[in-house]
């Protein structure tokens, strides 16, 4: 007979009782000859309070018994143990649980990081196209889609990639020295890049690089990876602007960038377009990088790409000595491409984001 | 049982931060290694501690919520609420990018109304959840109301409060408070709330008119300066710019605190549960000290984070960024070290701010009146752990 306190869950009245360990459960002597037996399996540990261990009883809301500490061995053996961190952690102990969770988390991160490589090629191109359309649309009228410019650009695309049927290359009226591959074979060339490029072969090199990203399914991979990671970090972001932005600034792996460069070089070789102007373009960019210094670099084309100087060397090395290269497009076509935005009367101007 | 006599306050918090620290630290460790999943169990452990250290009259409170129900509630909230909301947001932005601004605008307005509803609904549910998981003497609270009606009144009262140039905000705040609390109960008794907003208007107008007055002052000073054209005027303008900055960063927050302190006293002082009346004693000064202390904790954590980072030169890989370099790929170990040095102290701020907030709330809460324990019978409100009741765990504060 051990003195204890008890709430029956019916009223707030506190009862002074005696508890006895029986085979079938904990017996509470409520006084005046009344008693109540709580089966051992129904009792659960709640708390330590004012020098007593408090237990609840499954199925009876608010039923409590507080047994003063220290408890007799008989009671301590039959009553449920103290719980601290939650069921699973208590079962294994905190350090084994920490080790187990760490391993599991590492595995999850690894899967999320690697899965896009496997999953991206399996996404049907038609889905990707729908996604790209939903994300881009007409970019709020900022596409320079005057007939002449677009026609000349299409000619350039066909010239370096005869298999260009599922590509959609367009010029955007935004002053950024950049080009981007988006889902669904969409490639955007920004006006700033056209102003920076000295001749069509330079543009052909950059375009070939973006075509490489499209063909290698890099875009989908980067997008899936981004989605997986943001899901993991709890920031389930759902705005298109953000998605578009991250797709554009998507940091493809260094390997993917090199593969895209190789792809561009191959395209140019097949099309008999000289890689030297592209090397020259990277040389100018590298010059700019040296001048720009640290802060401005992060804002520009180069930050998401390998070192321009390295790339210059790759393009330079791919040139064949004594080859008779032909220009990517005619001078008239090149003018039409460069002036595409100026000649499009209804294009809107402005920053994208 | 009579309460609230001179000798003893009805509510007392007797926690000890040294006792709380192991809870916060182990919570952080488990949350880190589970990529955040443990946070629901962490919240539960925190609350169990706060509640168990809170005495009301002769016994402590008891938190009976579980991590599992918070976790399931979170999953349900994601599927039923957050994913549709994100989908809608995605659609609206896609429409904007495609130039369909009218349709996007209409959808955006609808989106705003839906969000308002959800905020109201979630506030109601959080309160209902907390009361239904709070036991005292084996008795708990709850509500019969699922909270949909509250969500609707939250929409229109917020809109009306804001539309009248924001002048009716005290009305909407007090009115929504009583809409919420009048639906809550403890044991068999309903809470009764009847706050009045008229008395709050003086402090609210002070808060409301000060920035307007400051801007007017600035304009007058600028005009006066332009007319006289003297160098003294430049000093005058500099002085008034300084005054405006001071107003926005020091005076305005203080006035807001002053208003909120009055609001909170009003709504708690007019709250009762059958024969018990509640009071809240904190004045602006106490609220100010609470926020000052919380800000101090934050700064302390920042210093604690920056010392190891700068000592180990962890920034060195990042301070000298070169084009095309990817410091994250080059020193993964350093990145992890830096992130941990930042995350560990910064994540301990949250639990201790919650600790201080709870202590502040309990220390300033008072109750007077008489309780008949025999009449305080068990609550008959629903406390489902699955199905509809799971929505109870839509506890925004826990997420």
Features:
heterodimer, A: about 350 residues, alpha+beta, three-stranded mixed sheet, 13 helices, about 50% helix, rod-shaped, B: alpha+beta, nine-stranded antiparallel sheet, three-stranded antiparallel sheet
What does this structure look like?
The complex is a heterodimer of chains A (353) and B (399). By secondary structure, chain A is α+β, with helices and mostly antiparallel strands. Chain A has 13 helices and 10 strands. Chain A has a 7-stranded antiparallel beta sheet with strand order 4-3-2-1-7-6-5. In chain A, strands 8-10-9 form a 3-stranded mixed beta sheet, sandwiched between helices. In chain A, strand 5 (43-49) and strand 6 (52-57) form a beta hairpin. Chain A is rod-shaped and about 110 Å long. Residues 235-243 and 295-304 of chain A have low confidence and may be disordered. Chain B has 399 residues and is α+β, with helices and mostly antiparallel strands. Helix content of chain B is 65%, strand content 11%. Chain B is built from 12 helices and 12 strands. In chain B, strand 6 (134-136) and strand 7 (139-143) form a beta hairpin. In chain B, helix 4 packs across helix 5 (148-163) and helix 8 crosses helix 9. The longest helix of chain B has 39 residues, at 231-269. Chain B is globular, with a radius of gyration of 25 Å. The two termini of chain B are 38 Å apart. The model of chain B is unreliable at 319-325 and 386-399 (pLDDT under 50). Chains A and B meet through strand 5, strand 7, helix 3, helix 4 and helix 9 of A and helix 1, helix 2, strand 4 and helix 3 of B.
């Amino acid at each position: 007979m051990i003195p204890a306190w008890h709430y029956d869950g019916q009223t707030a009245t506190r009862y002074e009782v005696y508890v006895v360990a029986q085979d079938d459960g904990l017996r509470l002597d409520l006084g005046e000859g009344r008693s109540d037996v709580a089966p051992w399996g129904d009792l659960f540990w709640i708390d330590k309070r004012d020098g007593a261990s408090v237990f609840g009883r499954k199925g009876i809301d608010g039923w409590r018994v507080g047994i003063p500490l220290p408890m007799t061995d008989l009671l301590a053996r039959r009553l449920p143990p103290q719980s601290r961190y939650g069921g699973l952690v208590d079962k294994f102990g905190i350090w084994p649980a920490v080790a187990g969770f760490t391993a599991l988390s590492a595995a999850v991160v690894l899967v999320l990081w690697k899965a896009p490589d496997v999953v991206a090629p399996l996404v049907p191109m038609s889905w990707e196209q729908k996604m790209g359309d939903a994300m881009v649309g007409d970019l709020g009228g900022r596409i320079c889609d005057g007939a002449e410019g677009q026609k000349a650009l299409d000619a350039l695309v066909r010239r370096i990639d005869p298999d260009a049927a599922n590509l959609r290359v367009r010029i955007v009226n935004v002053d950024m020295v950049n080009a981007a591959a988006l889902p669904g074979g969409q490639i955007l060339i920004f006006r700033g890049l056209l102003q920076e490029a000295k001749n069509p072969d330079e543009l052909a090199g950059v375009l070939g690089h973006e075509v490489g990203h499209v063909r290698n399914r890099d875009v989908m991979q980067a997008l899936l990876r981004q989605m997986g990671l943001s899901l993991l970090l709890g920031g389930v972001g759902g705005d298109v602007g953000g998605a578009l932005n991250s797709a554009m600034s998507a940091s493809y792996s260094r390997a993917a960038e090199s593969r895209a460069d190789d792809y561009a070089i191959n395209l140019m070789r097949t099309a008999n377009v000289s890689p030297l102007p592209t090397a020259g373009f990277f040389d100018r960019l590298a010059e700019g990088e040296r001048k720009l210094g640290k802060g401005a670099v992060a804002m520009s084309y180069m930050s998401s790409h390998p070192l321009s100087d390295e790339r210059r060397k790759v393009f330079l090395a791919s040139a064949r000595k004594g080859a008779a290269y032909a220009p990517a497009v005619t001078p008239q076509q090149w003018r039409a491409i460069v002036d595409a935005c100026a000649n499009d009367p209804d294009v809107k101007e402005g920053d994208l984001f | 049982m009579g309460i609230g006599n001179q000798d003893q306050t009805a509510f007392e918090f007797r926690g000890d931060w040294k006792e709380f620290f192991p809870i916060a630290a182990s919570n952080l460790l488990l949350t880190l290694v589970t990529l955040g999943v443990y946070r629901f169990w962490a919240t539960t452990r925190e609350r169990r501690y706060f509640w168990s250290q809170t005495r009301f009259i002769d016994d402590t409170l008891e938190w009976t919520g579980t991590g599992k129900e918070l976790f399931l509630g979170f999953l349900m909230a994601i599927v039923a609420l957050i994913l549709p909301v994100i989908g809608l947001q995605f659609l609206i932005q896609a429409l904007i990018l495609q130039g369909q601004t009218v349709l996007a605008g209409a959808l955006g307005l609808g989106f705003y109304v839906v969000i308002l509803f959800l905020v109201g609904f979630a506030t109601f549910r959080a309160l209902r959840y907390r009361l239904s998981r709070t036991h005292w003497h084996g008795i708990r609270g709850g509500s019969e109301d699922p909270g949909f009606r509250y969500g609707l009144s939250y929409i229109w009262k917020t809109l009306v409060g804001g539309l009248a140039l924001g002048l009716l905000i005290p009305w909407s705040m007090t009115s929504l408070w009583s809409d919420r609390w009048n639906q809550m109960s403890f044991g068999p008794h309903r809470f009764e709330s009847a706050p009045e907003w008229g008395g709050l208007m003086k402090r609210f107008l002070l808060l409301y008119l000060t920035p307007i007055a400051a801007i007017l002052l600035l304009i007058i000073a600028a005009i006066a300066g332009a007319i006289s054209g003297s160098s003294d005027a430049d000093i005058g303008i500099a002085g008034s710019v300084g005054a405006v900055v001071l107003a926005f960063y020091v005076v305005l927050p203080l006035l807001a605190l002053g208003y909120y302190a009055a609001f909170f006293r009003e709504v708690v002082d007019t709250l009762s549960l059958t024969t018990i009346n509640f009071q809240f004693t904190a004045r602006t000064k106490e609220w100010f000290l609470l926020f000052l202390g919380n800000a101090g904790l934050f700064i302390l954590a920042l210093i604690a984070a920056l010392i190891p980072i700068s000592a180990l030169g962890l920034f060195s890989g990042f301070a000298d960024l070169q084009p095309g370099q990817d410091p994250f790929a080059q020193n993964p170990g350093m990145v992890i070290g830096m992130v941990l040095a930042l995350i560990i102290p910064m994540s301990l701020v949250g639990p201790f701010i919650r600790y201080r907030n709870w202590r502040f709330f309990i220390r300033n809460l008072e109750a007077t009146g008489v309780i008949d324990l025999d009449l305080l019978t068990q609550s008959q409100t629903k406390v489902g752990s699955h199905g509809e009741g799971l929505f109870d765990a839509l506890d925004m504060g826990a997420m």
